[in-house]
Amino acid sequence: MTDSNQHNVTGSKVTIHDVARAAGVSKSTVSRMLDERLPRSDSEKARHVRKIAEQLGYVRDISAASLRRGETGMIGVIVPRLTDTVMAMLYESLARAAMRLGKFTIVASTEDEPGAVRHAAEALLRRGVDGLILSTARDEDIYTKELRARGVPYVLTLRTDGVSLSAVGDDQLGGYLATRHLIDLGHRRIALIAGPSYASSATGRRAGYLQAMREADLESDPDLIVGSSFSIEAGVEAARQLLELPRRPTAIFAVNDNTAIGALSGLASIGLSVPDDMSLVGYNDVPIVSHLPTPLTSVRVPFDQIAHEALSLLSEDMEEIGQPIRRVAPTLIPRKSTRRWHDAHGNAVASRP
């Protein structure tokens, strides 16, 4: 038996050999029974090994195990910026998922500049990370092709290039749910603050918007679709542009909560009320949107599930991966920023054309 410092009777640290000797099993059996990455066995032998390990005060040395496998246990994560709540939430989810696997994450940011991705990735690789998770993918980016050619393990998350291993939300479904919600409330002139064209997340949500409009036999007026970045300032500018149209929309779907918050500010600056004058839907459901003076209807993205899928893809054998792009379904969260639309006479508009 050992003291609380997890040392054996000789004063040295308890090893896997000590556990194997005391349990009367092989070292490989102990390693397998105590490996937290594997499904937990409830066999009599496994319970016996865990009991002996606990009595001896054995703690598995994850770093040593990683070094024996030629790994460091470090995963590099690249995000556009951590001041963006969405990216901060993603990183926290990735860090938690990595911790459950006995690994830890290192983050680098790029300010969403294409050339900065290469610099960040190479810096992380020089520090010995076992793989990369990138949330910076652009449609025109060629760096992922280079990583693939070099055999560097990497996974894209939140955004995909359509080819690489990717863990993303089902953005087309999310865009469809947001737009369908507004249609069901009687809105016919529904504007889209579309986000940047280089991000698959934005283009997927736009595709969902167009799908819902087509299914409802509603015209997709090009003037109602405004490109933007993912910033609050871009949302303010996009809302102002929409409000200058001869025929204003009655509802706005913004493909990002930041741009939705910006749109909310832009509407308030000219005295328009949400939802009385304009219904508004955002995307991602970051924590602040439920605490706004007018809580924002938003599409919730399951970041923890996306992070789990990303770590799974990074650790799986390439030959065993059935679906290289894993999409996780989002959920619409209705709040007070959307309401049924009434015509000029105060009559509720039917939910379908």
From TrEMBL:
Species annotation = Rhodobacter flavimaris
| Cross-referenced CDD domains | HTH_LacI (cd01392), PBP1_LacI-like (cd06285)
Kindly give the InterPro entries that the UniProt entry links to this protein: HTH_LacI (IPR000843), LacI/GalR-like_sensor (IPR046335), Lambda_DNA-bd_dom_sf (IPR010982), Peripla_BP_I (IPR028082)
What is the name of this protein? LacI family transcriptional regulator
**Keywords for this protein:** DNA-binding, Transcription, Transcription regulation
Specify the domain of life of the species encoding this protein: Bacteria
Q: Which residues form the HTH lacI-type domain?
A: 14-69
Pfam families (UniProt xref)? LacI, Peripla_BP_3
